[in-house]
Design brief:
Length: 321
């Protein structure tokens, strides 16, 4: 059987579908845990999740086999790295591994036995760059075994429910344990808490003035002020945000939201919250909770829009419960 290499894959990787290492697959399959699982006859390991970037000095490959919508080719797709067996991907399985930067041959072959073409023929060569992760997909038609470079966003959509292929151990000496960058710190939780008051509790439909506050609304505002004053951490800042419903014109909704926010600020100040801590703003009708309601002022539409009529009191510096 003659041996030959194909360089088309190299060109594809260095074109538009060459991807950075910001979002990559999980750890490679040949860990001690994977070896133990393989020995116990398990086929799949952990579900795919985006992982850390690979450090310079290595290239990382996420090779996967999508779950086809219709009929699929039976059996596994044998993945080879430099002519050596890495794993056999079943539908919805993936393998993630690292190699030294430079030239490598990669491919995934359906119906590979007994010729084992991935070792000898149709070798697809690629120049893998340091610190880069490549997403490669199995060709389901079994025509050649050529890897298909896939954009990261597309690959991760298809990998959303994929699982680590762990039933076979890698025999590829080029494969290395991945050196991954430290995990990015989790984003800090917001330092504020929102209290949402239904405008229908505070005001009648279309109303916004201080004299328009209902008895129930005055009670709610007094309770809110008492809650805020009881916080031992103190309050750094309060933003009162007025929202209007979808009935009427946008500029009128903007004015109504602003007027309701100003009224709530006045009430909070009268209930002991320092006015210098409070600012107001209006979102008008730009952030509806329910956008399915009609915009004409019929009783049914007024009732439908009730969730959209609200005032949000956003408190910064308060403990989040």
């Amino acid at each position: 059987m003659s041996t030959h290499s194909k360089f088309i894959f190299n060109a594809a990787l260095t074109g538009a579908l060459l991807f950075g290492a910001v979002s990559v697959g999980a750890q490679q399959a040949q860990t001690p845990q994977a070896a133990q699982a393989a020995g116990q006859g398990q086929v799949f390991g952990a579900q795919y999740s985006p992982a850390r970037a690979v450090l310079p000095g290595q290239a990382q490959v996420v090779y996967y086999r999508a779950m086809p919508a219709g009929a699929r080719t039976p059996g596994g797709a044998h993945v080879y790295v430099d002519g050596h067996f890495q794993t056999s991907l079943l539908p919805n399985g993936y393998t993630a591994f690292c190699v030294a930067p430079g030239k490598h041959t990669l491919g995934a072959y359906l119906n590979d036995q007994p010729d084992y073409k991935g070792k000898t023929v149709n070798l697809f060569q690629a120049e893998l760059a340091s610190g880069v992760t490549y997403f490669l997909k199995v060709t389901e038609d079994g025509s050649s075994g050529a890897p298909v470079p896939v954009a990261r966003e597309t690959a991760e959509r298809e990998l959303a429910n994929a699982r680590d292929q762990i039933h076979a151990l890698s025999r590829a000496p080029a494969v290395q344990a991945c050196n991954l960058a430290a995990a990015a710190p989790a984003p800090a939780a917001p330092s504020y808490k929102d209290y949402t008051l239904s405008s229908d509790v505070l005001f009648a439909f279309g109303k916004s003035g201080y004299r328009d506050i209902s008895a129930a609304g005055r009670t709610e505002l007094a309770k809110l002020a008492q809650t805020l004053q009881s916080q031992p951490e103190g309050i750094k800042h309060i933003t009162v945000i007025g929202h209007a419903d979808l009935i009427g014109k946008a500029d009128a909704a903007q004015r109504l939201g602003a007027a309701r926010a100003a009224t709530v600020k006045q009430s909070l100040a009268e209930n002991g919250i320092p006015s210098q801590l409070i600012q107001t703003e209006s979102r008008g009708n730009t952030e509806p909770v329910d956008d399915s309601c009609r915009k004409t002022a019929t009783p049914a539409n007024i009732a439908c829009n009730e969730p959209n009529r609200r005032v949000v009191v956003r408190v910064e510096g308060q403990r989040k419960n």
